Each structure stands twice: as C-alpha cells, then as structure tokens.
Amino acid sequence: MNQDIGQLxxxxxxxxxxxxxxxxxxxxxGMPMGMADVAYLLWNDFLKHNPQDPQWPDRDRFVLSxxxxxxxxxxxxxxxxxxxxxxxxxxxxxxxxxxxxHPEHELTPGVETTTGPLGQGIANAVGMAFVERYLATMFNxxxxxxxxxxxxxxxxxxxxxxxxxxxxxxxAGHLKLGKLIVLYDSNGISIDGPTSLSFTEDTxxxxxxxxxxxxxxxxxxxxxxxxxxxxxxxxxxxxxxxxCHSHIGYGxxxxxxxxxxxxxxxxxxxxxxxxxxxxxxxxxxxxxxxEVYTHMRRAVEExxxxxxxxxxxxxxxxxxxxxxxxxxxxxxxxxxxENLDGILPSFxxxxxxxxxxxxSGQMINALAPLVPSLLGGAADLxxxxxxxxxxxxxxxxxNFEGRNIFFGVREHGMGSMMNGMALHxxxxxxxxxxxxxxxxxxxxxxxxxxxxxQVIFVFTxxxxxxxxxxxxxxxxEHVHVLRTTPNLCTIRPAxxxxxxxxxEMALKRRDGPTAIVLSRQRVPVLDRxxxxxxxxxLAPASHALRGGYVLYSSPNPEIILMSTGSEVHITLEAxxxxxxxxxxxxxxxxxxxxxxxxxxQAYHDQVLPPHVETRMAIEASYPTGxxxxxxxxxxxxxxxxxxxxxxxxxxxxxxxxxxFTPQNIVAIAERLLDRVIT
Length: 678
Prior knowledge:
Elements: H1 5-24, H2 30-46, E1 61-64, H3 70-79, H4 86-90, H5 120-139, E2 151-156, H6 157-161, H7 163-174, E3 180-186, E4 189-190, E5 193-194, H8 203-210, E6 213-218, H9 222-234, E7 240-245, H10 268-277, H11 290-296, H12 299-320, H13 322-332, H14 340-343, E8 350-355, H15 356-367, E9 374-378, H16 382-385, E10 404-406, H17 411-424, E11 428-434, H18 442-451, E12 456-460, H19 478-483, E13 489-491, H20 496-508, E14 514-517, E15 522-525, E16 549-553, E17 559-563, H21 568-580, E18 585-589, H22 593-598, H23 601-607, E19 615-618, H24 626-631, E20 637-640, H25 651-657, H26 662-677
Parallel strand pairs: 1-2, 2-3, 3-7, 6-7, 9-10, 9-11, 11-12, 12-14, 13-14, 17-18, 17-19, 19-20
Antiparallel strand pairs: 4-5, 8-15, 16-18
Helix pairs in contact: 1-2, 1-3, 1-11, 2-3, 2-9, 5-7, 5-17, 7-17, 12-13, 15-20, 17-18, 21-26
C-alpha cells in the first residue's frame, strides 16, 4: 500500500473499527472512521502514556467522551500495546469481552472513565484537569514539576448539546484549567440526520464566552491538527477547544456524511467498497500491516522511558522535599487515620439537638486536617449544606491554594466533575446540594456507582422537615430512588453521632460512592448513657457501622418499629408510650439499607427476628421498598410514609398533618397488634 505511515495507521484504525462493528452486527462505525487521523496524531505525537503502566500518576489523561465510538479507543489500545488482543477486538460487544459497547473503566486497561451517556466524559475530564492543577499547585517546586500532564478529550455534537457540557465547560473556563484540551468531532451529523435540525449555535463564540481558547482545523490535514494541539499546549491559562471539521464515516463511498454511518454497521458490500477506495486488502478481516504495529507499538518502549524520567525526578524530589513526598503518598493512597473513630469529635446527649447537616459540617472540618485528600464544595449551597472547610479559603481561577470548591448552581456538572476527580487519583471528592436536586445529578451518581469509585454526595434538606419551602423542595421519592441504585451506599443518620459514623463509613468505602442524607431541622442527640426504658439504655452509635441495628428492645418483642433519620427520635417516643402500655417493643435504626443487606443472615435474624411478624416502618419519604425488604407479611405490616408531594408550612405542622407523631405511630401499632392477636 502506497501510503505514508500516518495515513496507514489512521486507516488501520478505520478498518479495525468497521470490521468489529460489522462482526458484532452492532455499534457505531462512523465516528471512529471520521476521527481516526486526529486520534492517531494525538496518540502518536502528543499523548504521554505508558501501556505497561496505565495507572502512572503523571500520564496524560485521554477521555473518549463520544463513547459510542468505542472501537476507536479499543483500536488505539490494541495498536499501542495495552494488551487488548486482536481476538478481543473481534469479540466487540460480546459477553465477557473487554471490548464492551461503550468504554468501561477498570474493565479495559487504558480506559480512564466509563463513557457513553453523552456529556459525562467531557465533564469527567474537567474534574481530572481540576485535580491536575490542584496537585500541581500543592506539590510542584522549581525544578520539580512532578505534576505536569494534560487532559485530552474527543467529544462530539451530542456532548455539546447535553446541558452538562454547558455546566462543566463554563466552570472550566472560570477556573482557568489551561491543561484541558478538547478535540471536537464536528461532523454535522446526529442520529436523526443533520445537526442543523436542532443545533445551530455558534460553538466558537460559545466557548470563547466561557473563557476558552478556540481553534478550528481540518481533521484530515495533519499539519492543521498538529499546529492546533501545539498551540493548545502552549496556552497555560485558558482551556482549549479544537473544532475538528470532519466527516462521519470518512472513506465510505456511500455512507460518508450520512446518519446511517452513525449507529449501524456499514454492511459487507460497503466495507468492501471502502477498503477498495482506501487501497486496503479486502481480506482477511481485521488486517493490520506489520509496519503499523511496529510504528505504533513504539509506545511500549517510549512509555517506560518517559515514566522512568518521572520516577527519577520523584526520587530526587523525595530527597529535596521529604515532607511533601510524605504528603504525596498519603494523598495518593487516600490514607485515613487508623483510629479515626477515636479521633473524631463525638456529641454529648442533647434534647434540643443539632441538625445532622450541621453535625456533618463539623465532621468535614474535623476531617480536613486528618485526611488531606478530602476535597469538595457545594452547588452554591455551602452555607446550607455545611460543606465549607473553615479558614481554608476558596479555590479560584487565580488561586488554587484553597480547600473549598464553589461549583455554582451546576449540580449535574458538579457530580460528574467529582467522578473525574476521583478517577484522576489523589483526591476523595465530596459535593453538597439539597436532596431534591439529586434529580439534576442522577446520571453522574449512577455513573459513580457503575464505576465503583469513591465519591461522597452530601444531600441536606432531606424531607418534609425542611418546611416552608414546600413541595418543590421537599424530597419525597428521592431516598428511595437513591436506594435502588446498585452499589450506591445511601446513609440517613438519626442524630449527630450516627452522622459522625456516616462519614467514617464513607471514607472507608473504596468500592463505590456514598450518599449522606441529612436533615435541615434539629434532631435530638440521643442519650445512650442512661436507661431509656425498663430494658436499659439505647445501643451505642458504633453499632450503626453495620447499616442497621437494634437501638432499643425488650427481650421478647411483639412488634418491631423501624425508622431512619429525623423520624427515629419520634419512633423512640412512640416506643416509650407503647412500653408504658405493656407492649414489648423493639426499635431498629435502619440508616443504610445497602450496608445492612451486606451483613450475613445471622445478623439479619438477630436484628429482625423472623418470628416477630408484626412490623412497622416510619420514614418521611415514599414508602416503596420497606415492605419488600424488611417489614414482612402484608396483613401484619404497615409503612408510615408519604405518597404525595408534601406541603408548605412549618415542619412541625407538616409532620403532624402527615401523621409523623408518636401518638399516630402508637395508634397504628396497636391496630397491628390487635390484628395479630385476633
């Protein structure tokens, strides 16, 4: 084939992509074919990476935000030596394959983040670039740039249409993330047809208004792309957008520039014509010339060399700055003190109480000096969410030495940025907003859970207890929605001491995200030191570490009352009344279903004895889930919840109107017991 090596490599990317999609009879060949030249130049001439160590801390990050074009990334990983074999390329989208339909973090070496839901990748990348600058500010010293890497993104029209990109890219410009470089596959085609059907904004002006450097380049003129990336690297303040004017399905005689090239195989005959047009052998399928492997697998040798230079620099850095090197190790290992439980402040019994959001704020401030990797902020609600580290100052475009991130009213962007921060490494991110606004960031929450990354979501104003703001702000169904998300640990603590333990659980949990759900209103700090009833004291708060525990019980309970959060103290009052009337009662604080369900059956039976069939759950949220998981047979159970959208009034009145009073709980419990006795 009479092609220069760059063209040969780009065409190899095209061939692998269209052959894999055709074999799977499923996928998106158009984007990989259109951006093959750009991707080759980026990976061959610019990307600092090491196929033999995909987790090298100072590697450049590459995010394929247009994750539907996953075969482009898999082809790059195969050709550059990441251990993705040709057989795995042939198993694209098949059961058990490492070449899934969309790139999946940790499934495939070299995949920095799971992408596919459009806009998530570009917002993840903003989080990665944020951490790069944050760590560079913290650790770099003259002659020792131990943090110096770029975050590159390939995105498409869909990424820029999704609202999340507006949120994240606006904040990236504000924060002056100069090492973020986005290559936009501007091909003018989406699933429904020309993007002009719905997308006619001036992208140049939009990103310039955000404070970005914007360039335009032809995707098939190497000098254009090289010059644009070089200029982007030279821009130290503004993030960079390179608009790559491209053609979807580039090289396909009949499907180039067609929506048909987006989400379906080209077809056997069209692939034959495409290979003929590019001077490629029609057979065998998945053919890659030896010179392509020789050329692109130079990365296998070049990567260790570049990483070795960095490791030598780190060795000298450790000698010159031993304290900073120790801090570096603590942050990258996400170290937390072994005796965290003994260090964190505890709360004395207090009938007047403290809002759990306020207790959470105290925990954040206690943890900040102990856990240097803990970093976060709020979506314009720092004062309400109690997320600010006092005295630490804000992080801004001109100063990255603070400890508080002001995300602005950008919940979705915040959530996805936090995911990118966690994926970058060195940081345990947290971010706060009202629980009702978890709706705005649900896709990012889901992605954190899917990837199994350590992100802490702080959700305050957790129920009708927020009062006068009314049903628009009262989260009725939201706790249930969070609980239905696989691998998300949702914790709704009953008082300040359970809140303290919620933070301990979140910091110790490395295999998934945690949502800490907190009250606006004060709740009593439970007195666990003196007798509560005739059977002794309330259980220590430390029992909460198992997700659910017996807070108080008679030896032979007739009824189990289960509750969470700000309804627990009301449930306890009801239990005291029932006990005074001769009822043997057990109260269970079920603050985290996910953790409780991880316990063994013996513990489940210990907390919820199967023979105690009369059960009641009390929670100021949508009742779904309690019955199936914990309450029991229909004729002996009751869930006191809310199946409307709340109301505007002082919270005490709302609780009364919805029946969250000790007297109503007692009345329901007595009816249940009568039914059991009958």
